[in-house]
Amino acid sequence: MSEKIRIAFIGCGRFAKHFVPLFKAHPEVEKVFVCDLIPERAQKYSEVFEVPIIESFEEAMKSEEINAVAIFTQRYSHGPLVIEALKNGKHVYSAVPCSISIDEIKEIARLVEETGLTYSMGETGYYRTAAIFCREKFASGEMGEFTYGEAQYNHDIRNMEGSFKSSGGDDWKKFAGIPPFFYPTHSTSMILSCLPGVYAKKVCGFGYKSVTDTDIYGTEGQNFYGNPFGNETLVAELSNGGVMRISENRNIGWKCPETFITQFNGTDGCYSFAVAKHFFSRWNPECNTKVIMKDVSKMLLPEGVMNALEKDYEDGLQQIADSAGFFDMSPIQDASRLPESFRNLRNGHNGTHHFIVDDFCKAAATGKLSPTNIWEVARYSMPGLVAHESAMQGGVVMEVPDLGNPPEKFEMLDPYAFEYNQGNTK
Questions:
Q1: Which residues pair with 281 in a beta bridge?
Q2: Cβ atoms < 10 Å from Cβ of 52
Q3: What is the DSSP string of 107-142?
């Protein structure tokens, strides 16, 4: 039987609180610890969630009892912490992004290959309903050959002040100016996760130099990254000949964070999304001069949102604008493979949190690769990092490095072929 997971949360900020209860409840987890640079935060988590405190990241690294860490620090700090954890023999769950450095991503992959330890990034985009739908339709052959896809992540900086301020203190605005493309995976994952083995070969990037929030973006030295852009967009040539457009927007009139695929197009079928409705169209097999278009929103939206749309369209739209369904699953999200202990626990990010935690725990228990393993998330991350450099140089076309597919010695996790506490060998 595999060793139980004993995991230390590194960082007790605004986001980690959604995940401590899930890890505590998972059948493969034996114990959860918490730590934070601000002792009062760790103490509060300890009291609220009834978990012990580990004094520091360094102490967690030394601990023989702890065999895994969950990195929930600020986004620019993940890479070095992940590398140190792997070097100390710990499995790693990391919040997004993987790293803001291509060299660090390469080093993480090297360490995972060398040690066989689990690395899994908590990328919600992989588990969102539109990505699941497009993945299934593309795999079935109904879409034909992929031609073009576009996705975006809209999250205005005015809705993010609390997140940065809680950890950045008086310098929070300097941290908040992080380039949008240092955090591209909510968008890139929505497209690339549907295309097995496909990666970005070349990108060109462009940025919007903000005329508002100029105390965050703008003049040289305004932030820690020398970044003038509040919004960034890339166009990528993919390895299968298709084209991908990605936008990461932080200076936009969109109150709540939202990730969505606008279009996912194939030679025979296309998915599209417009504010509140999801559509799938394909050639009519009986008459090749016409297409069949179907509204598939009931599959992809939580029941509460769907009911609101059917009752009063304007109220339904407002619920979407106010993040309605943030905690709810949709019919296309198959909860049958989740542990029973998750049934009544709070979810998040459109019903994705349960799946993210379950996949990490099952991967660590079996030694198999989670869907968001390092080789996969490298393909989500690197196009953005290169595209930011392109934007800084006025939109020049640049090649994107690729780490390749996972080494053959690794098997992919099948989360349905798993028996809790039964040796995990099914």
A1: 270, 293
A2: 12
A3: HHHHHHHHH---EEE--GGGGSHHHHHHHHHHHHTT
Q: Is 270 helix (H, G, I), strand (E, B) or coil?
A: strand
**Right CATH number for 126-330 from 3.40.50.2300, 3.40.1550.10, 3.30.160.20, 3.30.360.10?**
3.30.360.10
**pLDDT tens, residue by residue, 169-198:** 778 888 889 999 999 999 999 999 999 999
3-class DSSP state for residue 341?
helix
Q: What is the pLDDT of residue 286?
A: 77
d(CA 143, CA 277): 19
Confidence of residue 424 (pLDDT cuts 50, 70, 90): very low
**Could you give the CA distance from residue 5 to residue 8 in angstroms, rounded to a whole number?**
10
Tokens 């401590």, residue located? 20
CB atoms within 10 A of CB 68: 25
Query: What is d(CA 178, CA 393) in angstroms, rounded to the nearest whole number?
Result: 17
